[in-house]
Amino acid sequence: MTIRPVFYRRSYSWGQASLELGERTLVMGILNTTPDSFSDGGRYTRIDAAVEHAREMAAQGADLIDIGGESTRPGSSLVPLEEELARVIPVIEAVHKALPHIPISIDTYKAETARQALEAGAHIINDVWGLQADPDMARIAAAAGCPVIIGHNRESGGYANLAADIAADLRRSIRSALEAGVQQEQIWVDPGIGFAKDYDDNLSLMGELDELSKLGYPILLGTSRKRFIQRTLDLPPDDVVEGTAATTVMGIMQGCQLVRVHDVQANVRAARMADAVVYRFADIRKQAGE
């Protein structure tokens, strides 16, 4: 069995909250405050329900919580800035107060939402448009000195070489971040499973994730309950826990260091099993001087 993933080591600290990348897979729990998300829309729009779900995910092993106020499902409507702020800021404040030791990421492509979210207690920016939708996003991230997750996305698919084209798109976004003053150690990348990619693209990309490690940045994988899993298993979004866990393991085996999931407990268990193998091989290689 050949296992040669590349793991990047990073340490982050914000008061009581901290993250250590490179010791094991980190699990990001999803907290949607939207009424129309494809699998859990409307469940956590009330602040008390959102905080309780955040507590539950933390108890199940989530290392950080990703809070978003606009659905990214295909066909979803764009959410005005003021509405997005009304959805996410009170929840971020409440979760930060209830769980000060848990880092929070804000899932948005709007710079003003990111700015106010960071002021409210968020620690990380998660931009599914890779800093390309709002020209001020890279500047906000640089000014805050916070980690930024650069997600792959584009207006349409049509790839000549899937992994190479995605890597090229991500390089452009990374260049934008660096030119704005974002430090290299603050950049993570997300291959954007499900964004501007059809069924075959998503399946192919799941087998080529290790190619993206050549970019030189930690990889976050977000496959949770995605349509390509639903279609493969012919199951609804809330019944694909095993399918998501399978993709989690596949990602870890190829060097993904963070996974973004709805079903925290199952994916934490899957990740720990994969880690026991993958990080052991990584340690052996390190001791051998590879």
From TrEMBL:
One Gene Ontology term from the biological process aspect of the record: folic acid biosynthetic process
GO cellular component terms, A-Z: cytosol
UniProt entry keywords in alphabetical sequence: Folate biosynthesis, Magnesium, Metal-binding, Transferase
A Pfam family it matches: Pterin_bind
Cofactor list: Mg(2+)
Family the entry assigns: Belongs to the DHPS family.
Species this chain originates from: Paenibacillus sambharensis
EC number annotated for this UniProt entry: 2.5.1.15
Protein name according to UniProt: Dihydropteroate synthase
Domain Pterin-binding: 25-272
